[in-house]
Amino acid sequence: MKRYKKNSDYSYSLGTELTLELLLQRPEEVISVYIHSRQKENEILDRIKGLCQKHKIDVIYSDKIFNIVSDKENCYIIGAFRKYESIINPKSNHVVLVNPSNTGNLGTIIRTSIGFGINDLAIIAPAVDIFDPKTVRASMGALFRLNFQYFESFADYLQSIEKRAIFPFMLDGARQLDQIEIPERYSLVFGSEASGLDAVYQTYGQSILIKHLKTIDSLNLCNAVSIALYQFTKGKV
Fold it and tell me: What pLDDT does residue 235 have?
């Protein structure tokens, strides 16, 4: 195994809880599980070894791979897994990220989305790699519960889904978040960390503003997504 690259056919879950979640949700994609000599025997390790035995996955005791692929001192279990294809459910509610560029933010948004019951994520290219180990780690394993799909353009995304309300979140959104009547089917659209959404997104559906004090110029993308998801799923999760 080598250090992760975007064109690799496989990726890694770096950590005990991540690897357990990988084995629980995507055992068919696991190549092998590596255990460091400093890993102590405990209940979680027993569960991991039991799942590996159940699914006939090799357990390898070796410290070498940890020096190659992990920059975390407290990482003592690594799962190597094949990258897999995924598609979103065209009938479900979606979070849509346009050109996300930060692996940590993407992972955090995945975790938040799963936590609020939105299990489908559309990503408009160009965008960061969802299988980057930093994204996997930031998601705390929620990635393995997610339906995701990359699209070349927002128009391509719209052509692939069933009719629904579109809500672009913008600094100059036409209506405030707390004024929106929540429909049955919707897509929540967010721009990149650096530039947000282009003005053309005002022409898609109902643009939304998350109002805040003028003491800051904008909210962090992860915070904006969290606030939006809370408002749209309030009373339903």
Answer: 75
